[in-house]
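Forwarding the complex inputs:
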Amino acid sequence: MLFSSASITVLAPATVANVVCGFDVLGFALHEPNDVMKLRLIEQPGVVLINDDEFNLPTEPTQNVAGAALLAMLHAIPEPLGVEVRIRKAIRPGSGIGSSAASAAGAVAGLNYLLGNHFSKPELVQFAMYGEEVASGVRHADNIAPAIYGGVTLIRATTPTPDIVALDAPPLFVTVVHPQIEIKTSDARKILKQEVPLRDAIRQWANVGGLVAGLLQHDYALIGRSLEDVIVEPVRSILIPGFQDVKEGSRIAGALGGGISGSGPSLFMLSQDEATARAVENVMHATYQRLGLDYLTYLTTINPVGCQVLVDEN
Amino acid sequence: MLFSSASITVLAPATVANVVCGFDVLGFALHEPNDVMKLRLIEQPGVVLINDDEFNLPTEPTQNVAGAALLAMLHAIPEPLGVEVRIRKAIRPGSGIGSSAASAAGAVAGLNYLLGNHFSKPELVQFAMYGEEVASGVRHADNIAPAIYGGVTLIRATTPTPDIVALDAPPLFVTVVHPQIEIKTSDARKILKQEVPLRDAIRQWANVGGLVAGLLQHDYALIGRSLEDVIVEPVRSILIPGFQDVKEGSRIAGALGGGISGSGPSLFMLSQDEATARAVENVMHATYQRLGLDYLTYLTTINPVGCQVLVDEN
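Prediction (whole assembly, two chains):
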């Protein structure tokens, strides 16, 4: 194994999981916002975490998303190694755009660079999933996979090992709105029905097939027609004020479609061009100003590379 | 509209529907077997059917799959028109490889040629679906779509109009075995559970996404991993003696995977090369000879064009 003595900076991107019909299986990475993480190897074995932001996340490694992911990774290495991580989060915890995944994915992508890229992407996904377990109790890869691979990813399976398919999507503009309300992932899971009508399930997998085909064939109209969720959205959208107004207004403004990002509260809309994405942002502004809710918006594009490692000048 | 006075011959192909995880949405056309249909326009308005085989199918147009499809098509034309159809079926009714769909699709593809290709493929699918209604009581497009479009098709939706996506698949060899037992489509439908666990549904749509991606990316290994059905096969395979032996033996022989064709009793297996497809055929021979069941096998490839119209020499 090649150890690097460099200090590096990782840009760990926000991600959208549960892409409409692709609940639990489809996700993509965003160009903005990014967490910024600085990593370097240190003499003392273990993980040292330093927060460089206002979120007061735990610095005890086993309680911290990045820490737990790094400990899993260190555990897979025979040598006793130490790593220091300084984290400046820009992706707000609880926003539904993969805040915890960014911390976990950025940490393992960074450490992997310092180890001479010893581990493969599927292995990095597995390590980072330990971080997700700290955040939500579930070792899921929905946001981890696009954060590690970039672009649009399909998680075909997570066991025995993650089977992740990178989908070569056409350029897409993404408008995200984060209404400042709290939805816990665990609560959002609880309200899902554990049995679904076969009829709805068939319609959902027809749309998943259509969405994957639309992405790979760069067929924007097919992408738009396939952005339909008959299973999760009807239940979860009730938790998000303004959902119907944003969705309908965005379609009228020309968006291909969209829905809940992750388990919410953020909503995302996909557009073929920037002007439409901006019109969608205006729909979001109008909706939440009318409702009197604080909110943030992002107008960005799909990030094809995922976590990006920059070597610091010493 | 351009009317042709020619007599034409249509080769209407067998098709595989319910492709493993793609229950109700994925199908493909085969090079063999084909029904052979001869069509010509006649003076007297309406449909005249002539059987040229041993199956004794009804010749009253409203009771006949091809007849019902043609009547639906004639109904969409302002002029009173007549068409004569002579049908020599090679695809056995009840085999599960789209016998009724071949009749319906072949009939409308043939008449459309005689009408100067007046109708689009989605329109032909809609007309042919009236034929399927005669056969099974359900106006489904699972076999019709690949018979009309050729290749591998995804039916993203059937209402308000069929939304059919042609998938550019890599070369695939298909081995089919038709054990000579009877399974009625209506019975096969009845034993399905109308509610499915969300967990299984998610796994199924992950596999549908994987299969569509594997086909479009020409990734044989991904196709193989995605050929998994956790919802329908566990229930329906019980109706088909030899199912597990064929499936497991075929995988051991090198097949990518496969399952029940349509609602059975035929089984199909996909292979990357002809030698493997032949080894799979030997597994099928061995299985049904051991069970003492009569059976037929076909070793063929995916037919990229669907129904083929040949103009007869006069």
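Chain A has two domains: 8-167+303-311, 173-301.
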